[in-house]
């Protein structure tokens, strides 16, 4: 059995640091979507594989792109967090 830990693709919260760090649930940037596509081609998932994802938008977007066309099992749980953003108080 292998255990692979993968972070999400580039998120909007890193596009204009430090001002962008206040975004509460940022999406992937276009670069982040390309990173997720690349991940799908480098590490294809198959039936019998399990993907655990946090409920953050950018993580779910990464997981959705990565698992496209795969029969792997997908589970969303906040237990694979924690969330470190936003760092700036509104």
TrEMBL record:
CDD domains: HP. Transmembrane segments: none annotated. It holds the Pfam family His_Phos_1. It comes from Halobacillus salinarum. Residues 1-26 are annotated as: Disordered. This is Histidine phosphatase family protein. InterPro entries: His_Pase_superF_clade-1, His_PPase_superfam, PGM_Phosphatase. Residues 1-13 have a biased composition (Basic and acidic residues).
